[in-house]
Each structure stands twice: as structure tokens, then as C-alpha cells.
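Q: Here's a chain of 217 amino acids. Please give me its 3D structure as C-alpha cells.
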Amino acid sequence: MTFRRTPGKDDTLEAPESQRQTQAERRETAERAILEAAKRIVAERGLEDLSMSDIGEAAGYSRALPAHYFGSKSALIHALADHILAGYGERMRSGSTPSQGLDLLLDVISFCIDDAIDNPESLRAYQTILINGLTRPELKPLVDRMVQQSINDIAGLIAQAQQLGEVRADADPYAEASIIIASMRGVMFQWLINPDHVSLSRVRDSLVTNVRTTLKA
């Protein structure tokens, strides 16, 4: 005779929680795979050819799953932009240095360019989203946020260096940050178009030298 154990109070409390954790982990894994597939497609073919069903298939899931998780193509593109920025942030934190002030600003500039060299797919997808903000009204708020966040981050580093007395007092952090961001994105765009004609490592060294010379107190 086989006796079945009657579930106790602890079992009824623990099982649903364990199931919820498993479901959450599975969803997180699926969403990451979907966003990585979307990044590859955007980098290779742009936004016009991006379809939710193609993304699901490329991610190894059902063609309907991206729409189930993200709702619309526009919402998925917003999530993709955040995914790309989150990956960039993780890589920066893992390679962070104890520098501060002007040296920290220069290290961040160097990292941004080196990261572009190491992760061209992320860069191409990111630049594609930025460019589409010019012509697609549904993406304009997203692109505006992306641009402003980049400027704010660099401006914050310049302001901190000013407080330490390492950057000249008359420098406008936001104006200087806009110039730095425009310089990096412009040369990265040129590099994506024709990497043989642009040496990002040389541009990195020149930009770091120019920023140091221009901003140093």
C-alpha cells in the first residue's frame, strides 16, 4: 500500500512562492533573449524591417511572445534602448577605476570609445534608434531622453571636476558636455560607415588630449 503525504501548512505557503520565482526567472531570461535578438536585427537591418514575429523566432521562442511581453513594437524599441544602456552601464562598472575629477571624465571618454570598438553591434543598434528619432514621432521622447541623459552624465562629471578645482571655473558643463557627446557620436557614426577610414583608438587619444587641454584649470 502506498501512503500519500498530506500537504502541511508550510507546503502550501512555500510551493507558490517557489513557482513564482521560477516564472520570474524564466520571463527575465526570455525577455533578455528577445531584446538581444531585437538588437541584432536592428543593427543588421534597421527599424523598418523589425517585426515582433521575427524577433520571437530569432530569440528561439514563439513568434507571439515579444508582443505578449512588450505589447507593441514601439514599446519593445523603448525597452531595447534601456537594455543597451544597461549593458553599457554594467560594463563600465565592471571596469571602473578609482580616478576622480578630470581624470575620471577622461577615463569615461576613453571607455565609451573603447566600448564601441568592443561592442559594435550595440553601438550600431543604439545609433539607429537615435537617428530614427528625427523622423518617427513615437520615438522622439525616447531619443530626447537618451540624448539628455548622456549630456547630463558628462556635465555632472565636469561639474564635479570644477568643484575639485581641476576644471576652469568659466567652463559651462552642459555646453562642454554637448561638444564631447557630439564629437564621440559623430566619429562613431563615421566609423560604423567605414571602419577602415577611421581609427577610433587614435580619435580616442586625440579627444582625451583635447578635452584635457580645453578644460584644465
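Q: Can you summarize the key feature?
A: Confidence is low (pLDDT under 50) at residues 1-15.
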